[in-house]
Structures are given as structure tokens and as C-alpha cells.
Design goal:
The chain is of the alpha/beta class and 489 residues long. The protein has two domains: 283 residues, Rossmann fold (3-Layer(aba) Sandwich); 200 residues, Orthogonal Bundle (N-(1-d-carboxylethyl)-l-norvaline Dehydrogenase, domain 2). Helices cover 47% and strands 11% of the residues. The protein is built from 22 helices and 13 strands. A five-stranded parallel sheet has the order 6-3-2-7-8. A three-stranded mixed sheet has the order 5-4-11, sandwiched between helices. Strand 4 and strand 5 form a beta hairpin. Helix 5 packs across helix 7 and helix 12 crosses helix 22. The chain is globular.
Length: 489
């Protein structure tokens, strides 16, 4: 067993891939806010691949976080010289590599220090993985929410920013005042039009602070849209033990993920970019078809199987896919209701993509949990499910399965599985959701009445009727019988 550190890289087992470049020659070019598992299995790996080709060493990563909870991540990574292990899990085998593209990690929660580093002209890209719920947008309308508490606080005191967008704006303001080019803001979160959403947040905050600054942001700062994809579960003691047992590495913060990864990105940057096309990134003029495909089919598919699987007391995602009713539900939903609402994607057959994601979900080596998929439905349903519902209503298309997704979510938030096992809170808005879910058992409109989530969909008779019928059936007949009714319908 070898404890991961720069000094110990040469002593790692030969089967573990290590950086082939001189990490001492890497300089900072990207500051990333939100150093979670997905970022470290995705953007950090693409950069590591580029560096291994002997290119782009001036684009090293500096980690940052605006939450105090990020302090433990920084502590553990700093003890390892910011190295970490990524384990790619194929059904037949796994492989481990040490990633060295991160060279620093700023003190989490210190907004002023992070803004000061971003003001350095050497930093040319500020990237983000702050989750779908971190963008200060109204869930129902997807519009920027200027009344969000973090935005209100940062508008009142931008010198001490609390939110990621306060940090970004404070740094952009300093660069503008100094005559430096702005950095690019590159969202790597699962949001439709993630670059546009990030622009609305930064410029929307600037509107509250200085209209001239807001105009400059909109005119000069690039916010490329991008589609990112790699299934990356949370790390537990299980994964740390597997890494040591199978690969001989002791790492406090390993990342386990699937072998598949994808990044499609608009080629729009304020101050240059690394040559990531040489590492497999696909640069396109318009990312929207790719992101709609991924968000509606993969993320929407995750949401579809999550709640019925939880109600059936299934723990892992591959367990859910091994349950015929769940697998058939997903397949029918995608084929009959989701794919018809996805526009054509260049170079991609949607039926092939459906087959690919179903195989990815079924990979038994990933260890992805149903509970992770159920997390934060109040932010995810309005992004992954409800826009497809709205399109289906406009097109007069089938939506019973889509209504069933939200009905299963409602039933889950009632707090017990079909067997009576207690479901621990799993959403930032859990108390309200739990109360509404209980009320909806007798009156489904109590759930659809959450206007901040469902918006005008609650006023659509066809959707309200489908949701009400689905929820009533779940409570009356149970999850298994409800799934059977849909797939055999």
C-alpha cells in the first residue's frame, strides 16, 4: 500500500497510471469553484490528458469553494499535494489513474481571497460545478431570481461576496478597473443553457450593483454553453477500501466513475482556452441539441427510475435496472414520451443513445446509489422532467409516464417506502415537500400548487388529471402494481 503524495508517485504500483508531465512546470490558468467528484472525474481528467500530451501546461487548475463544507475536501487534497485517484469502472474490470492537473486549492468560504486570485490576469477561465440549485434561478420560470438571499447580500456588500456569482462579479469588477481582459465563465453543471444561466446570474447581480458594470459584463465576458456527462457516484469508505485492495493506493479523496465521458462545448472564450479538442472535447457552434438530449434522456431517465426504485427499497442503480418493471418503465418512457420531445442531434441516433444510457445505468461496477439520484428533486424536476412535459402539452403528445415521474417523486417525499421504511430527508426543501406530499394523498392539487416548481403546468387540465390519477394509483395499489399498469398499458 502506498499513501498518495507527490513524493510517493514513483512508488505507486505499475498498474496505476501517473502524470507523465512535470507538475512543477504547470502554472495556473483556470480557477474552478466547486471541487466535487464530478469535476475531478471530468474537467480535471480532460486537462490531465492534455498535459500528458505535453501541451497546455499553462492551464493548471486552482480549486475554490464558497461553502465552509468544502474545507474538508481542501484539507485532504492538500495533504496529497492536490493529487487524487480516478478509478474508471467497466463491468469487466477497473483501472486507476492519478490526476495531477490541480495545483492549488484556495481556502473555502473566503470570498475575498478567491476574488483576488480571479483578478490575476493569469486566470483566464473561471469554471463552475455548483449543482443545479446553485444558480439563483426561479425553479418554475428558470429566470434569474434577484430576490435570492445570496444575491441580496452580495449586492449590498460585494467586497465580501458570499455566493459564487458575487465572487465572480467582484473579480470582474477589479479586472475592468485595472484594464485587464475578463476571464471566461464556464459552467459545467447540468442545466439547459448553462452558460446563459450563468450570464444571467452574474449580469443580474451586476444590475443590482452597477448598471455600467452589468453592461460591460454582457458585452465582454464569454459564457459558453456546454454539455457534460460522466456518471460519478459519491465516495464512501467502500470506495476507499476498494482502491487500496485492488490498486494498492491509499487516497482520502478518490473518485470512482464510469469509463464513459463526454464534453460538448461552444467555442466562445474571452481570453483564450486550452486545446481540449486534443483531449477529446467536442467544440461546436451550438450545444443545445446535445444538452437537450442528455438532460432529457440521461438526467431525466435518472429521475424517472430514482423514486419508484427508492419506494421498492432498492439501493444501487444497477439493482434498479435489474428489476424488470423499472427497466421496462424507463425504456417505454424514453421511447414513447421523451425521445419525441428531443430535437435531432448532429451525428447521433437517439435510439443508440437510449441503448447506451440504459447500459450505463446497468453497470454493476459503478455503485451509484438510488438515494443520490433522488437528491434535490425540487431543483432537478423543473430542469430534467417538467420542460419535457410542457413540450408534450404543446405538441399534444403522450405524457402519462412523465406525470408518473412526478407522482413517484411526490409519493417519495411522503417519507416512507412501500415497505414502511423511513426515508431520511433528501432535499433542501424537505419540510415543505413532506407536508405537501402528505396533503396530496387526499388532494393532488396540494402538490401541483407549488407554483415555484410547477408554474403554469398546474393549470393544464390534461397534466393535472394524469398526475392525479398516477398518484392515486400509487397510494392505492403500490409502486410495483403502478409500474406494471404503465408498462403493460
Amino acid at each position: 500500500m502506498t499513501v498518495l503524495s507527490q513524493a510517493n508517485v514513483a512508488a505507486l504500483p505499475a498498474r496505476v497510471a501517473v502524470p507523465r508531465y512535470d507538475r512543477g512546470a504547470v502554472t495556473a490558468g483556470i480557477l474552478h469553484i466547486g471541487v466535487g467528484n464530478f469535476h475531478r472525474a471530468h474537467q480535471a481528467v480532460y486537462l490531465d490528458d492534455l498535459f500528458n500530451r505535453g501541451a497546455g501546461l499553462e492551464w493548471g487548475l486552482v480549486g475554490a469553494g464558497v461553502r465552509d463544507a468544502d474545507a474538508a475536501m481542501r484539507r485532504d487534497l492538500a495533504a496529497q499535494d492536490f493529487l487524487f485517484t480516478v478509478v474508471e469502472q467497466k463491468a469487466e474490470a477497473s483501472s486507476a489513474r492519478v490526476v495531477g492537473s490541480m495545483i492549488d486549492f484556495l481556502t473555502p468560504g473566503d470570498g475575498r481571497a478567491i476574488a483576488a486570485r480571479l483578478a490575476d490576469p493569469a486566470i483566464r477561465i473561471a469554471s463552475l460545478t455548483i449543482t443545479e440549485g446553485g444558480y439563483c434561478i426561479d425553479p418554475a420560470t428558470q429566470a434569474f431570481d434577484a430576490a435570492h438571499p445570496d444575491i441580496v447580500a452580495d449586492a449590498a456588500d460585494l467586497a465580501r461576496p458570499r455566493s459564487a456569482f458575487g465572487v465572480l462579479l467582484a473579480a470582474l469588477s477589479r479586472r475592468r478597473a485595472a484594464g485587464h481582459a475578463p476571464f471566461t465563465v464556464m459552467s459545467c453543471d447540468n442545466l439547459p443553457g448553462n452558460g446563459d444561466v450563468a450570464r444571467n446570474a452574474v449580469a443580474g447581480l451586476a444590475d443590482q450593483v452597477d448598471p455600467a458594470l452589468a453592461q460591460w459584463v454582457r458585452a465582454h465576458v464569454a459564457f459558453p454553453n456546454g454539455m457534460v456527462d460522466r456518471i460519478t457516484p459519491a465516495t464512501s469508505d467502500r470506495e476507499r477500501a476498494l482502491l487500496t485492495k485492488e490498486h494498492g493506493v491509499v487516497d482520502a479523496r478518490p473518485v470512482f466513475c464510469e469509463a464513459f465521458r463526454q464534453w460538448v462545448l461552444e467555442d466562445h472564450f474571452s481570453a483564450g482556452r486550452p486545446g481540449l479538442e486534443d483531449a477529446g472535447v467536442q467544440f461546436v457552434a451550438d450545444v443545445r441539441p446535445f444538452e437537450l438530449m442528455k438532460i432529457r434522456m440521461l438526467n431525466g431517465g435518472h429521475a424517472a427510475i430514482a423514486y419508484p426504485s427508492a419506494l421498492l427499497d432498492l439501493h444501487f442503480v444497477h439493482d434498479a435496472m435489474a428489476e424488470p418493471l423499472v427497466a421496462r418503465y424507463l425504456d417505454k418512457l424514453l421511447v414513447e414520451e421523451v425521445i419525441p420531445m428531443v430535437p435531432p442531434v448532429p451525428g447521433t441516433r437517439l435510439t443508440d443513445y437510449r441503448t447506451l444510457i440504459e447500459a450505463r445505468f446497468a453497470n454493476p461496477k459503478i455503485g451509484d446509489t438510488i438515494r443520490r439520484l433522488c437528491l434535490d428533486g425540487s431543483n432537478r424536476q423543473p430542469k430534467f422532467i417538467l420542460p419535457t412535459v410542457a413540450d408534450a402539452l404543446r405538441e399534444g403528445s403522450a405524457l402519462d409516464g412523465l406525470a408518473l415521474v412526478s407522482a413517484f417523486w411526490c409519493r417519495y417525499c411522503a417519507g416512507v417506502t412501500d415497505s414502511g421504511a423511513v426515508i431520511a430527508p433528501n432535499d433542501s426543501d424537505w419540510p415543505r415537500l413532506a407536508a405537501r406530499a402528505q396533503a396530496a394523498r387526499a388532494e393532488p392539487s396540494a402538490w401541483l400548487g407549488m407554483r415555484d416548481i410547477f408554474g403554469a403546468l398546474a393549470d393544464q387540465p390534461r397534466y393535472a388529471a394524469a398526475f392525479s390519477a398516477a398518484l392515486a394509483r400509487i397510494w392505492r395499489d403500490g409502486t410495483r402494481a403502478t409500474l406494471a399498469h404503465y408498462v403493460d398499458g
